[in-house]
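If it is no trouble, might I ask you for a protein's amino acid sequence along with its C-alpha cells?
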Amino acid sequence: MARLKNLVHRRARPLRYRLLKPLLEHEALGAEQLQRYQQQQFNAMVRFAIRHTDYYRGSYQGISGPDFDPAELPVLTRQVIMEQRDAMVAGGAGQAGLKLAYTGGSTGEPLAYYYTDEKTEQMRAGMMRSYRWAGWRPGDKVLNFWGARQDVRKPCNPSDRLRRYAAAEQTLGAYDFTETDLRDWSRHVQSWKPVLLQGYASILAELAQFVLQHNMRMPTTIKGVFSTAEVLYDWQRAAIESAFSSTVFNQYGSREVPNIGLQCVHGNFHVFSDLVKLESKPVEGEHRLLVTSLTNRVMPMIRYELGDLGRLQDGQCSCGSPFPLLSLDVCRKNDLIVTEGGRRIYPAYFVHLLDGYSGIGKFQFVQTDPGSIVLKLCARQDVVDLVERGLQSRLRADLGSKMTFRVERVPTIPRSGSGKHRFVTGMRAG
C-alpha cells in the first residue's frame, strides 16, 4: 500500500518531482560547493533580470558582471514593488499564465505580486524536501491548519477531489474558530492519522493546548509538526511537542519568497542557499534580512528587504546538513516596541510577562506612541484588573517611568487579513 501511495503521489505531480530531484542532490554537496552554486545562480538571476525586465534594466544601469557583488546593488523595498510591480515582470505583465497574489495587510497595504503555476510547483518541491527532514515520504498524509482564507479551497468537482486524494493532503480553514472547532479538529487528527501537521504557529499552539487540557490521545503516525507564517515562541513549541509527541520544525519564508529556511531536529535554522541568497545588513543597530530568490524568473526579487531581523552564522550544525546557519531575532521590525529613549524591546519580553497568570485567552500588546502600551486581553474583569496591577510597576521599572500602560478587556482579537495573530504590534506596523 505504501508503494502504491508513493507512485500515485509522484504521477499526480510530475513537474514537482522533477524540481525536487536537484534539491535532494544539493543536500549531498559540501558547504563550499553550495556557496559556489549559490553565487553562480545569483549572477545568472541578475543577468536575467537586467535582460528581461524594464525595472532592473533601468535600476542597474552601469552595473556589470560576470560576478555581481550584492553590496553594489540597490535594496528592493516593499514600496518599490508596489510602484514598479508590472515593470518587474520578465517579458511584461501581459503575458499568458500570470496570476496575481497578495500578501497579508497586517503591516500596511497588502503587497501584490505575480506568479505562475510553475513557480508554485517550485515552492511545493521545496516544501517536500523540508518534509523529508521529519521522515515524510511521498504519499504520506499531511494535514494543514491554515489561517489565510484565500488559500482554502473546497473541492468543487470530482477531478479536484481526485487530485486532493492523490496528494494525500487536507487543509482546514482556521482563520476563525471556536472551542467546538478545536474539538472537531482534534478528533479529525485522531481518525485521519496524518504523518505531518502543518499550520500557523498560533493555531497549532491553541490546538495543542486543547488536546492537553482534554487529555486527548493523538495518533502515533505523526512524525513532525511544521510551524509557519508566524513567530514561534518557546511556550508554543513546548505545548505542540507535548500534545503530539513530535518534533516541531519551524519554517522561515514569505509569500513572495518561500522556502528560505527551516529548523532542523537540533533547533538550528538552516538557509536553503540553493533556493535563495540571504544577506544580513546592519542598519541603525539592527541586522535586517535581505533575500534574493534564485528560482523566480517570473518576477525577480533581488535583495528584497523582508522586514525581518537576523544574522547569518558561521560553522555547521551537527545534524549534518550543508546549508548555512541563521539566527533569527524572533520578530519582524513591525513587532518591536520602542521606548521614548529609543530602546527597542523584542516581543518575547512582552509575551513572557503573562507567565503565571491563569484565565487568559487571547492577548495582544499594542503600541501607538513611544510613551504608551495597551494590552488587549480576552479574560474576566477580575483577571484584567489583576494583570493591570501586576504589570504597571514592572513595565515602568523595565521600560522607564514615563511609559504608561493600561489593559483593555475585549471579547476577541481578530486575526489579520492573512490569518495571522500578532502578540505584539509596534508603531511601525502602520
